[in-house]
Please model this.
Amino acid sequence: IYCMVCHGGDGLGATPVAEKMAVKPRNLINAEAKAYTDGRIYHAITAGRGVMGSYAGQIPDAKARWAVVNYVRSLQK
Model:
């Protein structure tokens, strides 16, 4: 729900919203993102990274944030 607006359902970061952003969202499928540790992805969701703010308020349950990490990993396969 929260990620798809900018990163897209496929994780590529090519969405109508992303096109209008000065700083484009990360492509979560490329080799660089595949090399991220699970902890780095979790931390980005929890604390924010770059221009992306924290989503800890929208996803307060830590298990749900780890589920997002697992979803990103499933997209990368």
Notes: The CA atoms of residues 29 and 35 lie 10 Å apart.
